[in-house]
Amino acid sequence: MKRFFFLCITFFSFIFLNAQTIDELAAVRKGNNSYLQAEKLRTEAMQLIEKGGEINTKLANEKFKEAAKLYQDAEIAYRKGMAITKNFPKANYNLANTLYRQEKYEDAANSYKYIAEQKENDKSLRAKAFHNYGNSLLKQEKYKESIDAYKNALKLYPNDKETKYNLEYARKKMMQQQQDQQQNQDNKNDKDKQQEQQQDNKNDKDKQQKQEQKEKQQQKQDKRQLDALQQNERQTQKKVAEEEMKKAGKSKQEKDW
User: Fold this and answer.
1) Most buried among 77, 139, 167, 208, by the most CB within 10 A?
2) Is the pLDDT assigned to residue 41 strictly greater than 50?
Protein backbone atom coordinates (compact mmCIF):
# COMPACT_ATOMS: atom_id res chain seq x y z
CA MET A 1 0.00 0.00 0.00
CA LYS A 2 2.84 2.39 0.87
CA ARG A 3 4.57 1.61 -2.40
CA PHE A 4 1.32 2.06 -4.33
CA PHE A 5 0.68 5.37 -2.58
CA PHE A 6 4.20 6.58 -3.40
CA LEU A 7 3.80 5.58 -7.07
CA CYS A 8 0.49 7.48 -7.26
CA ILE A 9 2.06 10.61 -5.84
CA THR A 10 5.01 10.32 -8.24
CA PHE A 11 2.70 9.73 -11.23
CA PHE A 12 0.41 12.70 -10.50
CA SER A 13 3.39 14.94 -9.69
CA PHE A 14 4.94 14.03 -13.07
CA ILE A 15 1.65 14.84 -14.85
CA PHE A 16 1.37 18.14 -13.00
CA LEU A 17 4.97 19.15 -13.78
CA ASN A 18 4.52 18.19 -17.42
CA ALA A 19 1.32 20.21 -17.64
CA GLN A 20 3.07 23.10 -16.00
CA THR A 21 5.93 22.91 -18.49
CA ILE A 22 3.49 22.72 -21.41
CA ASP A 23 1.63 25.79 -20.15
CA GLU A 24 4.90 27.64 -19.71
CA LEU A 25 6.11 26.75 -23.18
CA ALA A 26 2.78 27.79 -24.67
CA ALA A 27 3.03 31.16 -22.92
CA VAL A 28 6.60 31.63 -24.13
CA ARG A 29 5.57 30.80 -27.71
CA LYS A 30 2.74 33.32 -27.43
CA GLY A 31 5.23 35.89 -26.17
CA ASN A 32 7.56 35.13 -29.11
CA ASN A 33 4.73 35.60 -31.62
CA SER A 34 3.66 38.92 -30.11
CA TYR A 35 7.25 40.12 -29.90
CA LEU A 36 8.07 39.22 -33.52
CA GLN A 37 4.88 40.88 -34.79
CA ALA A 38 5.70 43.99 -32.78
CA GLU A 39 9.24 44.10 -34.19
CA LYS A 40 7.88 43.75 -37.72
CA LEU A 41 5.43 46.61 -37.23
CA ARG A 42 8.12 48.77 -35.67
CA THR A 43 10.47 48.16 -38.62
CA GLU A 44 7.71 49.06 -41.08
CA ALA A 45 6.95 52.22 -39.10
CA MET A 46 10.61 53.25 -39.14
CA GLN A 47 10.73 52.77 -42.90
CA LEU A 48 7.65 54.97 -43.33
CA ILE A 49 9.23 57.66 -41.19
CA GLU A 50 12.34 57.59 -43.39
CA LYS A 51 10.20 58.10 -46.50
CA GLY A 52 8.67 61.21 -44.94
CA GLY A 53 5.37 62.86 -45.72
CA GLU A 54 2.24 63.48 -43.67
CA ILE A 55 0.46 60.28 -44.74
CA ASN A 56 3.50 58.09 -44.06
CA THR A 57 3.94 59.71 -40.66
CA LYS A 58 0.29 59.02 -39.80
CA LEU A 59 0.59 55.38 -40.91
CA ALA A 60 3.84 55.02 -38.97
CA ASN A 61 2.22 56.31 -35.78
CA GLU A 62 -0.59 53.76 -36.15
CA LYS A 63 1.94 50.97 -36.55
CA PHE A 64 3.86 52.21 -33.52
CA LYS A 65 0.66 52.05 -31.46
CA GLU A 66 -0.07 48.49 -32.63
CA ALA A 67 3.51 47.50 -31.86
CA ALA A 68 3.30 49.03 -28.36
CA LYS A 69 0.22 46.91 -27.61
CA LEU A 70 1.98 43.77 -28.86
CA TYR A 71 5.04 44.51 -26.74
CA GLN A 72 2.78 44.68 -23.70
CA ASP A 73 1.16 41.37 -24.66
CA ALA A 74 4.58 39.82 -25.15
CA GLU A 75 5.78 40.99 -21.74
CA ILE A 76 2.71 39.50 -20.03
CA ALA A 77 3.13 36.19 -21.87
CA TYR A 78 6.85 35.94 -21.11
CA ARG A 79 6.35 36.67 -17.44
CA LYS A 80 3.63 34.05 -17.27
CA GLY A 81 5.81 31.54 -19.08
CA MET A 82 8.74 32.11 -16.73
CA ALA A 83 6.86 32.61 -13.49
CA ILE A 84 8.30 29.35 -12.10
CA THR A 85 10.87 28.09 -14.57
CA LYS A 86 13.47 30.81 -15.20
CA ASN A 87 15.89 28.99 -17.49
CA PHE A 88 14.59 30.13 -20.87
CA PRO A 89 17.58 32.20 -22.05
CA LYS A 90 16.15 33.36 -25.39
CA ALA A 91 12.75 34.07 -23.86
CA ASN A 92 14.47 36.07 -21.13
CA TYR A 93 16.37 37.98 -23.79
CA ASN A 94 13.19 38.73 -25.73
CA LEU A 95 11.49 39.81 -22.51
CA ALA A 96 14.33 42.25 -21.92
CA ASN A 97 13.87 43.52 -25.49
CA THR A 98 10.13 44.10 -24.95
CA LEU A 99 10.91 46.06 -21.79
CA TYR A 100 13.47 48.14 -23.67
CA ARG A 101 11.01 48.85 -26.49
CA GLN A 102 8.51 50.06 -23.89
CA GLU A 103 11.18 52.39 -22.47
CA LYS A 104 11.24 50.49 -19.18
CA TYR A 105 15.00 50.88 -19.16
CA GLU A 106 15.65 50.01 -15.54
CA ASP A 107 13.70 46.73 -15.77
CA ALA A 108 15.31 45.98 -19.14
CA ALA A 109 18.77 46.56 -17.67
CA ASN A 110 18.08 44.11 -14.85
CA SER A 111 16.88 41.47 -17.33
CA TYR A 112 19.85 41.91 -19.67
CA LYS A 113 22.23 41.75 -16.73
CA TYR A 114 20.68 38.51 -15.51
CA ILE A 115 21.13 36.89 -18.95
CA ALA A 116 24.67 38.21 -19.42
CA GLU A 117 25.88 36.95 -16.05
CA GLN A 118 24.64 33.36 -16.61
CA LYS A 119 27.89 31.80 -17.81
CA GLU A 120 26.13 28.65 -18.98
CA ASN A 121 24.30 30.74 -21.61
CA ASP A 122 25.49 30.89 -25.20
CA LYS A 123 28.48 33.21 -25.69
CA SER A 124 26.78 35.12 -28.49
CA LEU A 125 23.64 35.64 -26.40
CA ARG A 126 25.67 36.86 -23.44
CA ALA A 127 27.56 39.31 -25.64
CA LYS A 128 24.32 40.75 -27.02
CA ALA A 129 22.90 40.90 -23.50
CA PHE A 130 25.93 42.84 -22.26
CA HIS A 131 25.66 45.16 -25.27
CA ASN A 132 21.98 45.88 -24.64
CA TYR A 133 22.62 46.11 -20.91
CA GLY A 134 24.99 48.94 -21.80
CA ASN A 135 22.31 50.53 -24.00
CA SER A 136 19.77 50.39 -21.17
CA LEU A 137 22.21 52.06 -18.81
CA LEU A 138 23.06 54.63 -21.46
CA LYS A 139 19.38 55.57 -21.67
CA GLN A 140 19.43 56.18 -17.92
CA GLU A 141 22.57 58.35 -18.28
CA LYS A 142 24.55 55.86 -16.19
CA TYR A 143 27.58 56.28 -18.43
CA LYS A 144 30.26 54.68 -16.26
CA GLU A 145 28.17 51.55 -15.77
CA SER A 146 27.35 51.40 -19.48
CA ILE A 147 31.07 51.59 -20.33
CA ASP A 148 31.72 48.58 -18.09
CA ALA A 149 28.89 46.68 -19.81
CA TYR A 150 30.27 47.42 -23.29
CA LYS A 151 33.73 46.32 -22.18
CA ASN A 152 32.30 43.01 -20.98
CA ALA A 153 30.56 42.56 -24.35
CA LEU A 154 33.87 43.17 -26.15
CA LYS A 155 35.59 40.58 -23.98
CA LEU A 156 33.25 38.04 -25.52
CA TYR A 157 33.27 39.55 -29.05
CA PRO A 158 36.31 41.88 -29.37
CA ASN A 159 35.62 42.90 -33.00
CA ASP A 160 32.00 44.00 -32.65
CA LYS A 161 31.94 47.44 -34.33
CA GLU A 162 28.61 48.56 -32.92
CA THR A 163 29.72 47.84 -29.36
CA LYS A 164 32.98 49.72 -29.97
CA TYR A 165 31.06 52.70 -31.32
CA ASN A 166 28.66 52.69 -28.35
CA LEU A 167 31.61 52.41 -25.96
CA GLU A 168 33.26 55.52 -27.41
CA TYR A 169 29.94 57.33 -27.42
CA ALA A 170 29.41 56.46 -23.73
CA ARG A 171 32.91 57.71 -22.92
CA LYS A 172 32.21 61.05 -24.63
CA LYS A 173 28.88 61.35 -22.83
CA MET A 174 30.55 60.60 -19.49
CA MET A 175 33.19 63.28 -20.14
CA GLN A 176 30.46 65.75 -21.08
CA GLN A 177 28.51 64.79 -17.96
CA GLN A 178 31.58 65.32 -15.78
CA GLN A 179 32.23 68.71 -17.42
CA ASP A 180 28.60 69.71 -16.93
CA GLN A 181 28.74 68.59 -13.31
CA GLN A 182 31.95 70.57 -12.78
CA GLN A 183 30.42 73.61 -14.47
CA ASN A 184 27.30 73.27 -12.35
CA GLN A 185 29.48 72.98 -9.24
CA ASP A 186 31.48 76.06 -10.27
CA ASN A 187 28.26 77.96 -10.92
CA LYS A 188 26.95 76.84 -7.54
CA ASN A 189 30.17 77.94 -5.85
CA ASP A 190 29.98 81.32 -7.60
CA LYS A 191 26.36 81.67 -6.58
CA ASP A 192 27.20 80.69 -3.01
CA LYS A 193 30.02 83.27 -2.96
CA GLN A 194 27.70 85.90 -4.37
CA GLN A 195 25.06 85.08 -1.77
CA GLU A 196 27.74 85.11 0.92
CA GLN A 197 28.94 88.52 -0.28
CA GLN A 198 25.38 89.79 -0.34
CA GLN A 199 24.89 88.48 3.17
CA ASP A 200 28.11 90.17 4.29
CA ASN A 201 26.97 93.42 2.70
CA LYS A 202 23.61 93.07 4.41
CA ASN A 203 25.32 92.38 7.73
CA ASP A 204 27.54 95.43 7.25
CA LYS A 205 24.50 97.52 6.38
CA ASP A 206 22.67 96.19 9.42
CA LYS A 207 25.66 96.99 11.61
CA GLN A 208 25.87 100.48 10.15
CA GLN A 209 22.15 101.04 10.71
CA LYS A 210 22.44 99.77 14.27
CA GLN A 211 25.41 102.03 14.86
CA GLU A 212 23.56 105.01 13.42
CA GLN A 213 20.52 104.15 15.50
CA LYS A 214 22.71 103.85 18.59
CA GLU A 215 24.32 107.20 17.85
CA LYS A 216 20.92 108.80 17.37
CA GLN A 217 19.74 107.34 20.65
CA GLN A 218 22.91 108.61 22.33
CA GLN A 219 22.36 112.04 20.80
CA LYS A 220 18.79 112.08 22.05
CA GLN A 221 19.97 111.00 25.49
CA ASP A 222 22.70 113.67 25.48
CA LYS A 223 20.14 116.26 24.39
CA ARG A 224 17.78 115.21 27.17
CA GLN A 225 20.62 115.44 29.68
CA LEU A 226 21.66 118.84 28.29
CA ASP A 227 18.06 120.05 28.37
CA ALA A 228 17.79 118.81 31.95
CA LEU A 229 20.99 120.63 32.91
CA GLN A 230 19.85 123.77 31.17
CA GLN A 231 16.47 123.51 32.89
CA ASN A 232 18.21 123.07 36.26
CA GLU A 233 20.46 126.02 35.49
CA ARG A 234 17.48 128.19 34.58
CA GLN A 235 15.68 127.16 37.74
CA THR A 236 18.79 127.88 39.79
CA GLN A 237 19.23 131.25 38.13
CA LYS A 238 15.58 131.99 38.73
CA LYS A 239 15.91 131.11 42.39
CA VAL A 240 19.03 133.24 42.71
CA ALA A 241 17.25 136.12 41.03
CA GLU A 242 14.28 135.71 43.33
CA GLU A 243 16.54 135.63 46.37
CA GLU A 244 18.33 138.75 45.22
CA MET A 245 15.03 140.49 44.64
CA LYS A 246 13.89 139.53 48.11
CA LYS A 247 17.10 140.86 49.60
CA ALA A 248 16.85 144.03 47.58
CA GLY A 249 13.27 144.58 48.71
CA LYS A 250 14.13 143.97 52.33
CA SER A 251 17.07 146.31 52.19
CA LYS A 252 14.89 149.07 50.71
CA GLN A 253 12.28 148.67 53.38
CA GLU A 254 14.87 148.92 56.12
CA LYS A 255 16.22 152.09 54.58
CA ASP A 256 12.79 153.63 54.15
CA TRP A 257 11.90 152.58 57.63
Assistant:
1) 77
2) yes
